[in-house]
User: What shape does this take?
Amino acid sequence: MNEHASITKTADKTYQKSTTPTKFDFTKPTGEPAFHAPDSIHWRIFKNSIAMAIGGVAAVLLEFADARIRSGVWDHSVYPVDPIGRSKRTGMAAMLGVYGPQSMARKVIAGVGRMHAKVSGETPSGEAYTALNPELLDWVSATAQYGFLTAYDRFVYSLGAEEKHAYWTGGDEVAKLYGVTEIPHSESEFLAMMIRLVPRFAPHQINSDFLDIVSSGKARPEIPKFIHKALARAAVDILPPIVREKLELGP
Assistant: This one.
């Protein structure tokens, strides 16, 4: 293991210990309410593995389109050496924000914030970044909103306008705990946020490497590899056309 991998692995272990519990049984609630009700659209979407997998990959591609986020993730986590494990821990934190007791979700999110406060650096082009940059916090949150909803609507169950509105407007409380200040409440508001960032988007080998990892099937080797490849294609498919063009991901 090289020096970079050793440093980032140590940092990621600290992140894991200080934020996400390694085990949490969602089937045995403690009686404390979650941030979302059992009849909410969030409960429907987040329990669907297809929506979460495709939407999660699409969200990462949207985040990595910006060099500041791409560098922050690559330089300050084990993503380069253990992207699957890192993604699973991020997914657990997201699940707690929907299904977990509010006190547990607050504790986990506070831990994420403490780790983000330590993340800063420069992109390969010399542009400074920090994980607490409001623009970056807002974009990361928005990409998850867009990715999960769009994947569910496209590949699982076609949602009506009221259901989409409930989803876009129902996550403010959790998003604000992460420090998010601009929260899109519709797809059009998400696209408006994206257009401001599009001039920054550019192709990068990391995007290709990430898709190769997804397509490889290493995350779930018991599932046929062609399904993993289809998942990667589906994630690219739901990206806005301008993003696919900017990242040179093809149709």
Q: What stands out?
A: Residues 53 and 115 are 25 Å apart (CA to CA).
